[in-house]
Structure formats: structure tokens, C-alpha cells
């Protein structure tokens, strides 16, 4: 029997050795060899920057076996491990410089980790000499931004078991498949091209990651590889690699040849795979993760899914799966994540689907034709963190079973057919929810007074039938959308220090003035939409504190005063809409300082005076609507300098960051003689729809010939002014025009024959002018005239013009 004191001594020694190893140290018996110490110092000399001091302990007067991140063999004192990987890709810890050839002196080196550093050196290529370190078993060069081909000399590393070259290079990899000792191979996030060899002989391989490879010209392409020799494979990832072809024919030998199959993780997501879910998947009974998201897979979800008893993560979203969701999914007791969203599934979802799913945490069934038929009294066996059921039928009553999900942080039940009041328990049950979307339902009644007690970052309740006043907002709210309801009373007060980033309250019944307290509460706003309400008075100057504003929409209220002076602080503004208010005065010269402005809407006000010359400094302006005002003077020729409305060699930075976050604002456009909803403002940015509308003003003089320089303009409306002179003769050079309105002016002369060159033109109105001569012919113009025979109607005699050539 062992003496207790002796046992205690052994345990103490054991833990001391573990502590030394964790610190990168070595036992006292190891003492490095001089030539290996010199080699390491030469490596240090090749490092030009060491911000974290990783090599600070590397000094000649110290034993190199005791240096940080250096490990020596206790038997031979040879250096056999260098663990110099940075903790992340952050430049605050990364080594900068090159990998010195002096490492060749470390011929007993087995483990080399240089990952997440900046050691590309002057050539930018992976050093060929690494292939001479014949004893290497572990090589990690991840995220070093090498360029060029991978040196084939690395194929000489016959003992290599672990190779991580993720995010390092691009090129071919044919020699890698000959290193039969490999157990771990990560080539993800490179730009590999060429196909994987037909037969893979890596019989020891347990981990293979080829994700995020390929591009349009040089890609991994179809993978019709025989994987039957990879029976040791446990993790296979080929995500975002442009794989295409029928999934049924791919990888089938992997399941049929290997019994039992060892595969635990299969990730083929974000590719172009087609076909139905193959039968061979049912044989992969050891799977823990199955990810096939964002492909073109069709057919039903088979009941054999219940055989994956170890499954933790299942993602089949963004495919074209059809049919019912099988009840067998409810037997997966370890399943934590279930993503079936954005498919074509239908049928009923009942509590039987989740009978034994006690581990479930994240579920997304959104955008399927599913009916969630679960009793409000049912208490699920799981505690969800994420629940998304957008566009699934859950109503008409509010789904009461959700009140037991007190761990929820993300809930989306938008467009779910709910016609009910918000339950009283919502503030308590959802106290931890950060993202809540119940928009596009038929919610009635008021908002809970306890809204400010919730932890919400994002709240979307738009397009319902909510009434009453808006209570104080949650203190951490960032995105708040209550648009398209019937809420009344004053603007909501804020309760947080920073205030939201986006506040959308358009199309309600809010009234009163914008108070000065609003400025302090919402000074961090980037998006503000108060359109279609009953607000009045002058906007307070303190709104100028919102210097990060990018989208501001105040249209269709009764706001008054001159052009708001606080707007000159909004140098980041992209969208400005003051349409349909009671603003007066002149447009300020400083409007040209809003250099990122993309859309300017000032119509239906009482602005007067000339169009300021400085407006042409708006190099990003693509949509300008000044119609229905009292603007006077001539149409300035300098409008031709609006860079975003013309093809030019000038490079103008008009990038819109995170446009998806600013989908709250919609845009109606007067196009082709009618006001039409153009959808989300993001669509205008994405399509680069360009428009100038100066109609219904008091503009005089001639239409300058220079306007034809705006050759990417889609809509030009100068109707209902007092223009004289002729239609610009070269107007046919405005090749992008789809809509042209010049009606109700005093334009005379002939209609330019070049109009027939406008092949995209689908609306033309030249009526009520003093035009004479011949109407030009052309397929497009003839069709337009047939649809609208009055588009050339004259103010006096109709016989001033004729169609076609004279006799």
C-alpha cells in the first residue's frame, strides 16, 4: 500500500509539471543547445515588431528552454515546440516581420504555431524551407496573409498530422493529398482552384475544412470525389465553396463504405447543391452537426431524421424543402438548434413536434406555410433563447405558450395572423428579450405602460392597429418601429442615456410640436421618420445635436418656418424629406455642404427664390424633388454638374454603410405622371434610380442645352412652369430617360428628331406648349402616342404639328 505522504508528493509534482507546461516553461533537466539558441535569436531578429512582448524573454544570457513559448525535450534538450500563435488576428498582439530560415537548425522541431501573425516577409510567400523540417507533426500558419502558390516542398513533411493554412494563400493543392499521416487539414478561407483529386488516400484524416474557397473564374467546382478511404473523418466542412451538382451523387461512398461511420459534423452550407436529401444521410447516425443551408435542395424532410439521436445542430434553411415537418424531429433530445426557415414547408406544427426536445434553445421556422397549433396552456419542456416564426400562422390569439420562455432574447412572430391585444404578462415574461418583432399583424389596444422596464434593443410593432399614447421607451433601445398604427398624443419621451439609433413612427396620429426634450433623449439618432402625422410648429434648433443623422423624414405634417438651419450640422445625411409641410423662405446656400446627400425631397411647401448654385456640390445626389413650390428664376445650366446623374470618370465615394438596417423608410415617387410607391429607400440606393422633378414652380427662361449631360437620369419633370425657347436638340443623348414631362410651359419650335433615340422612354408629355412642325416617328414614340394621343396637345390650334414626313 502506498504511503499517503508519498502519494501527496507525487500529486504535487504532477500539478507542478502541468503548471510549468501551461506557462510555456520546461523541467530543470532541459537546457537548450547553443546552436538552437542562436537560431531562435536569429528568428527574433527577423521580427520587426512585437507589440505584446511575446519575445521579451528571449535573451542570450538565459536558457532558451525557459523562454516563453519555447518547449524542449527533457531527454535530448532539443527544441521541439514553438507556440507563437497570436491570440487573435488583432494587430495589438501580432508579431510583424518574416519567418527566418534560421529555423532550419531546429531539425527536431515537431510543433510550429505562427498563426494570426504578420510574418509574410518581403516576398509575401510561404517559405519553401519549412518543407525541410522533416519531424514536423503540427504546422499552423493560419491567417498569415501569404500570396502566391503553396510551395510543393511542404509535401515532404511525411510525419505531419495537423496542418492549418486557413486564410493564407491561393492556388493549387494537389501535393497535400499525398501526406497520408494528416489527421487535421484546414484550407478554409483561401482561393483554391482546381478540383479535389478523384480518390483521396488520407486514411488518417479526421478533420477536413475547405470552406470559403473558389471564385467565379477559378473555383473548386463540382465535387465528385471518392471519399470511401476517409473512414476516420469526423468533421467535413466545405462551406461557401461554389459546389454544384446533385447532392445525392456526392459523398455517397463516404457513408456506404465506412461502417460504422465516424462523421460527426457535415457542413456543406451556402453552395449550389441540388436534388433531394439523399438516403445515405440516414446512415450518418453519429452526426452532431448537419448544415446544408442556402442550397437548392428540394423534396421533403424525411422521417429518418429521427435516427440522428446525437444531433445537436440542424440547419436546412434557405432551400426548397416541401411537405410536412415530421414528428420524428421531436425525439432528438440533444437538439439545441433547429433552422428550417425560408423553405416551402407546410402543414401543422403541434406540441408532438417538440415532445422530447428538452435541449432546444434556438428555433427558426420563419417564411414557411406552417400553422403553429399549440395550446396557450402547454408548457414546453425546453427553454428557448431564439424563437422565430415570421410568416407562420399562429393567430388569431396571441401565442400564450410563449410566456413560459423566460430565457428568450430573440423573438420574431411578425406576419403571424395575430389579431389580439398584447398580453399583460409580456413585460415580465419577455424581460430578457433583446430583439422583438410582432409587426404586420392585427394587434389592437395600447402599448404596455411597463415598456420602459424591458431590456429591448430592437422593437418592431409596425403595421398593426395599436392605439393610445406611446409610453416611455426601454432604456437600451436602438431600433424602434411603431409605424403604420393609430397611435396618438405627443412624441415619446426617452429614458436612456444614449437613445435609439433608429426611430420610425410614420403613419400614426401623433400631434403637437417637437419638444426640446426630444433633442436630448434622441441625440444619437441616425434614422428619424415622423412622416404622415399631425405634427406642427417649427422644428426646434436643438435637433442640430443629432450630428450622426443619416435619414430624416418629416413629410406630410404641418411643420412650418424657414428651411431648418439645424440641418447644416448633418454632414452625414443621406436622405432628407420635408415634403408636404408649410415651410417657407429660400433654399440656403449651405445646402451644398451636405455632400453625402443622395435623396432630397422638398416638394409641396412654399419655398421661394432661385435654386442655389451650391447645390451642384452634392456629388452623390441622385434624386431631387423640388416640385410644387414657388421657386423662381431660370433653370441653371450648372445642374449639369450633378455627378451622380451623369456618366463620368470622376471617382465619387457615395457608399451607404449597413443599408439593410435602414429599411424603415419607404419612398413614393412621382414617375410617369403618377405617384407610385417605390418601396424601401434601400431599393432606390441599390438600383441608382435618378430623378429631377421641378414641376409646378415659377421657373422661367430656356431649358439649357447642358442638361443633356445628365445621361443617367431616369425621370425629368419640368412641367407646369414658364419655360420658353425650344426643347434641347440633343435630348436624345439622355439614353436612360424613362419619363419626360415638359407640359404646360411656353416652349415653341419643333420637336427634336433625336427623341426617337430614347429607347427606354415609357412616358412622354409635351402637351400644352406652342410646338410646331413634324412629330418624329419611331417604334417607341408611336407606341407612346397610341397609348396617350394627347401628349402633344397644344394650347391653341392642334394643326401646328403633324405626324411623320411632309408631302
Automatic annotation (TrEMBL):
Residues 34-73 form the Leucine-rich repeat-containing N-terminal plant-type domain. SUPFAM superfamilies: L domain-like. It comes from the Eukaryota. GO terms for molecular function: protein serine/threonine kinase activity. It is a single-pass type I membrane protein. GO terms for cellular component: plasma membrane. It catalyses: L-seryl-[protein] + ATP = O-phospho-L-seryl-[protein] + ADP + H(+); L-threonyl-[protein] + ATP = O-phospho-L-threonyl-[protein] + ADP + H(+). Gene3D superfamilies: Ribonuclease Inhibitor. Its EC number is 2.7.11.1. This is non-specific serine/threonine protein kinase. It comes from Oryza meridionalis.
Amino acid at each position: 500500500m502506498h504511503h499517503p505522504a508519498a502519494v501527496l508528493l507525487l500529486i504535487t509534482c504532477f500539478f507542478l509539471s502541468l503548471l510549468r507546461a501551461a506557462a510555456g516553461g520546461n523541467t530543470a533537466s532541459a537546457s537548450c543547445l547553443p546552436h538552437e539558441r542562436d537560431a531562435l535569436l536569429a528568428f527574433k531578429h527577423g521580427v520587426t515588431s512585437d507589440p505584446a512582448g511575446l519575445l521579451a524573454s528571449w535573451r542570450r544570457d538565459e536558457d532558451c528552454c525557459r523562454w516563453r513559448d519555447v518547449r524542449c525535450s527533457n531527454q535530448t534538450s532539443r527544441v521541439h515546440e514553438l507556440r507563437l500563435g497570436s491570440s487573435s488576428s488583432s494587430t495589438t498582439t501580432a508579431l510583424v516581420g518574416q519567418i527566418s530560415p534560421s529555423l532550419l537548425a531546429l531539425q527536431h522541431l515537431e510543433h510550429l504555431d505562427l498563426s494570426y501573425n504578420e510574418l509574410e516577409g518581403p516576398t509575401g510567400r510561404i517559405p519553401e524551407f519549412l518543407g525541410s523540417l522533416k519531424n514536423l507533426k503540427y504546422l499552423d500558419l493560419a491567417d498569415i496573409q501569404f500570396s502566391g502558390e503553396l510551395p510543393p516542398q511542404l509535401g515532404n513533411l511525411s510525419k505531419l498530422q495537423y496542418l492549418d493554412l486557413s486564410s493564407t494563400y491561393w492556388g493549387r493543392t494537389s501535393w497535400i493529398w499525398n501526406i497520408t499521416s494528416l489527421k487535421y487539414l484546414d484550407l478554409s478561407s483561401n482561393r483554391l482552384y482546381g478540383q479535389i483529386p478523384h480518390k483521396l488516400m488520407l486514411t488518417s484524416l479526421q478533420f477536413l475544412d475547405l470552406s470559403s474557397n473558389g471564385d467565379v473564374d477559378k473555383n473548386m467546382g463540382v465535387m465528385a470525389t471518392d471519399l470511401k478511404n476517409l473512414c476516420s473523418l469526423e468533421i467535413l466542412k466545405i462551406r461557401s465553396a461554389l459546389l454544384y451538382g446533385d447532392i445525392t451523387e456526392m459523398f455517397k461512398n463516404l457513408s456506404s463504405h465506412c461502417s460504422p461511420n465516424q462523421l460527426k459534423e457535415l457542413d456543406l452550407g451556402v453552395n449550389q447543391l441540388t436534388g433531394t436529401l439523399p438516403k445515405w444521410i440516414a446512415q450518418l447516425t453519429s452526426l452532431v452537426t448537419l448544415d446544408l443551408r442556402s442550397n437548392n435542395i428540394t423534396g421533403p424532410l424525411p422521417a429518418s431524421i429521427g435516427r440522428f439521436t446525437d444531433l445537436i445542430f440542424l440547419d436546412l434553411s434557405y432551400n426548397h424543402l416541401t411537405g410536412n415537418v415530421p414528428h420524428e424531429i421531436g425525439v432528438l433530445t440533444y437538439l439545441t438548434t433547429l433552422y428550417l426557415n425560408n423553405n416551402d414547408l407546410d402543414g401543422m406544427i403541434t406540441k408532438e413536434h417538440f415532445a422530447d426536445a428538452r435541449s432546444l434553445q434556438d428555433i427558426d421556422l420563419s417564411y414557411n406555410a406552417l400553422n403553429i397549433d399549440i395550446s396557450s396552456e402547454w408548457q414546453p419542456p425546453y427553454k428557448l433563447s431564439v424563437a422565430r416564426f415570421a410568416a407562420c400562422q399562429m393567430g388569431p390569439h396571441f401565442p400564450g405558450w410563449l410566456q413560459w420562455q423566460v430565457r428568450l432574447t430573440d423573438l420574431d412572430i411578425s406576419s403571424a395572423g395575430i389579431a389580439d391585444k398584447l398580453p399583460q404578462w409580456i413585460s415580465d415574461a419577455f424581460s430578457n428579450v433583446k430583439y422583438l418583432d410582432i409587426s404586420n399583424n392585427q394587434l389592437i389596444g395600447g402599448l404596455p405602460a411597463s415598456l420602459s422596464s424591458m431590456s429591448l434593443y430592437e422593437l418592431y410593432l409596425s403595421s398593426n392597429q395599436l392605439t393610445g399614447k406611446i409610453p416611455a421607451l426601454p432604456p437600451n433601445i436602438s431600433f424602434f418601429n411603431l409605424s403604420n398604427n393609430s397611435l396618438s398624443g405627443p412624441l415619446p419621451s426617452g429614458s436612456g442615456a444614449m437613445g435609439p439609433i433608429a426611430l420610425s413612427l410614420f403613419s400614426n396620429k401623433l400631434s403637437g410640436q417637437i419638444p426640446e426634450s426630444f433633442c436630448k433623449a434622441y441625440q444619437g439618432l441616425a434614422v428619424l421618420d415622423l412622416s404622415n402625422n399631425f405634427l406642427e410648429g417649427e422644428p426646434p434648433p436643438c435637433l442640430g445635436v443629432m450630428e450622426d443623422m443619416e435619414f430624416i423624414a418629416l413629410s406630410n405634417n404641418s411643420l412650418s418656418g424657414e428651411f431648418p438651419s439645424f440641418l447644416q450640422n448633418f454632414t452625414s445625411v443621406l436622405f432628407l424629406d420635408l415634403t408636404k409641410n408649410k415651410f417657407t423662405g429660400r433654399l440656403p446656400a449651405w445646402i451644398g455642404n451636405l455632400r453625402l446627400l443622395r435623396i432630397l425631397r422638398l416638394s409641396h411647401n412654399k419655398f421661394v427664390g432661385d435654386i442655389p448654385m451650391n447645390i451642384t456640390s452634392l456629388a452623390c445626389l441622385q434624386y431631387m424633388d423640388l416640385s410644387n413650390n414657388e421657386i423662381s428664376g431660370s433653370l441653371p445650366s450648372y445642374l449639369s454638374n450633378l455627378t451622380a446623374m451623369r456618366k463620368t470618370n470622376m471617382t465619387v465615394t457615395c457608399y451607404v454603410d449597413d443599408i439593410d438596417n435602414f429599411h424603415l423608410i419607404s419612398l413614393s415617387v412621382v414617375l410617369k405622371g403618377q405617384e407610385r410607391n417605390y418601396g424601401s429607400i434601400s431599393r432606390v440606393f441599390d438600383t441608382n434610380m435618378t430623378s429631377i422633378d421641378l414641376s409646378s414652380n415659377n421657373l422661367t427662361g430656356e431649358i439649357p442645352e447642358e442638361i443633356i449631360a445628365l445621361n443617367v437620369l431616369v425621370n425629368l419633370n419640368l412641367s407646369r412652369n414658364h419655360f420658353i425657347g425650344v426643347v434641347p436638340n440633343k435630348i436624345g443623348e439622355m439614353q436612360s430617360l424613362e419619363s419626360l414631362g415638359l407640359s404646360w410651359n411656353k416652349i415653341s419650335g419643333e420637336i427634336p428628331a433625336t427623341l426617337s433615340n430614347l429607347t427606354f422612354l415609357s412616358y412622354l408629355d409635351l402637351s400644352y406648349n406652342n410646338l410646331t412642325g413634324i412629330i418624329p416617328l419611331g417604334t417607341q414614340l408611336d407606341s407612346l402616342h397610341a397609348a396617350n394621343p394627347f401628349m402633344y396637345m397644344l394650347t391653341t390650334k392642334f394643326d401646328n404639328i403633324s405626324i411623320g414626313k411632309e408631302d
